[in-house]
Amino acid sequence: MFFVFIFFLVTKTSTLKGYSANQAIIFYLSFNLVDTMSQLLFREVYRFRGLVVSGELDGILIKPYHPFLRILIGGIDFLDAVMMGPYILLTAYFISQTAGITPSSLAIYILLLFNALAITAGFHIAVLALGIITTNVDHSVMIYRDVTAVGRFPIEIYREPLRWLLTFVLPVGIMMSFPSQGLFGILSLQGLIASFVVSIIFITLSLRLWRHALRKYQSWGG
């Protein structure tokens, strides 16, 4: 339903912040690809609180494999898996209908989509850490989803300094807008490098928060 709204919104106007209707739709579809894939891969995070308050996390931490295999990517939502097909087909269709797309720009687009998924993994690891510290996951996940929802549209529609904050502090712009900008050939080399640097920094900070949370974990009866 939201896609239909976006479609009629952008097709009734000539441009959206300088982007054509097809380009604006690709921004929205790219957002959905990243958002749906992150929910598909990291759905188990939504059920993490029960493991903490019941003490079942103890049994996971002592297993001879990394706990992220269970608490981060241990569950898949079937509906998200079904929805990935239409999103991929729609994205491929509108890309094929957009002029100026080259094999190199398409490769950059795919690479930046994987980079976006790495950032979403960092967000979910941070949520897991907060779940140990506060024994609450739901609020953190909903805040994350509300913040990333601003990426439905090109990041240029927001004014400074909000745009800078949404790009480099809460890297929603890098997650949701940079892949499409790379596809259209308007992302600078500095922006491309910055996207990977921010991703590495963000994941590193998330893992440090996770290790800090584990030191605070008091286990059963704590």
Task: Write a structural description.
The structure is a single chain. With 222 residues, this protein is mainly alpha-helical. The protein has one domain. Helix content is 71%, strand content 0%. The chain has 12 helices and no strands. α2 (21-42) packs antiparallel against α6, α2 (21-42) packs across α7 (103-134) and α7 (103-134) packs parallel to α12. The longest helix has 32 residues, at 103-134. The radius of gyration is 19 Å and the shape is elongated. It starts with a helix and ends in a 6-residue tail after the last helix.
Please give a handful of descriptors for the protein shown:
single chain, 222 residues, mainly alpha, 71% helix, 0% strand, elongated
Write a compact overview of the structure shown:
This protein has 222 residues and is mainly α. The protein has helices at 2-11, 21-42, 48-54, 57-61, 68-71, 78-96, 103-134, 138-148, 162-169, 172-176, 178-183, 189-216.
